[in-house]
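Reopening closed ticket. The problem is back. First fold of the pair:
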Amino acid sequence: MEVEEMEILPPPEIRRLLDSPDEPVRTLLLCAVLTGMRRGELLGLKWEDIDFGGHRVHVRRSLWRGKLVTPKSRRSRRAIDLAPTLKAALGWLRGGFTGEMVFTSPDGQLIDPDNFSHRDWARVLRRSTLRRIRFHDLRHTYASLLTAQGAHPKYIQAQLGHASIQTTLDRYGHLMPQIHEAEARKLDQLVFGSEAGMEHVKADAGRD
């Protein structure tokens, strides 16, 4: 599988990205960064999909060509863990907006995905003075954040809705060397405890 080119925003750039837009665009971007949801999934989100008590957001549909459609893949229909910051932002948004859809245009209509990219997303990039990246790169950023904190690849797969673990590894495996190193250290610690890493030192010392 050919690895897709991707741009990943580090935390300082994420904060810059979120500084510029008004609501509901800011919460939509926060949701993209902290859930990895696709553009159509975000624009198809209903309030009934947000489980505030269970700290989860359920992906049940996507907005595609002006219509709400059910994801074809069982894996795409998934529950994503809700970070506290995002939960608070959604709670605030819920109090200020009416209707069944989470993200709508000012007149309460569905947001066309292409119009969003050409108008709202382009405006956000201009205001934040960030390099030109795709909206989909926020999904890659989410995966990289999970990887950086040591999340298991199977967890990343489930959160992103990939059909197979191989897809996750093919796309994000190059971000995981630090996980491999950490697991090797854990193995060392399990076998040798506090003496981990010292056995070869003792062996070398005995040769003098």
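Second fold of the pair, where the issue appears:
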Amino acid sequence: MKSTLEIVSDGLAARNVPILLIGGMALHAFDVVRQTVDVDCLLADDDADILRAVLTEAGYEEQEHTENFSRYVSPLVHLMDIDVLLVDKHTFTKMLERSRPVEVGHTVIHVPCAAHLIALKLHAMKNDPKRETKDLSDIIEILRNNPGAVPDDELQAIGVRHGPSGIYARLKGSL
């Protein structure tokens, strides 16, 4: 019986389609532990139909779909829901180049570098302020547990580009 990550990773690997693990499960790669009830992934939008086919074949149903997001659910209780953030191929390629493989259970999957994961969390906070408590805590823990992984100048640039106003000062004040 395959896990959710094995279904995604094996199905896409067989088709030579890369994917990045983001969200709560990706935090483990940065020595941050947080409970999560789903699998969050990042995929090039050109590959969305391939993932849809892989998941449909495994019994998943697409519950929600927008231009840049899809949610899949399985009727099987042992399989987690899957949230997929879709980005353009150029953005995905840049993130994939700086990603690294991690072992999660019996699966090796790539996670974004710390800077890119933080940028995703800041973008989410900026667009949905209700996420701030959880995402800000995740960002602070990534930075605390991985000193030097994101240089100050890069963190400041990420904060200005992706985060809410004044986020860099708030982050620095929390470290």
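Update: turned out to be a display glitch only; the data is intact. The mean pLDDT is 95. Strands lie at 20-22, 38-44, 61-66, 69-73, 81-87, 100-104, 107-111. Please close again.
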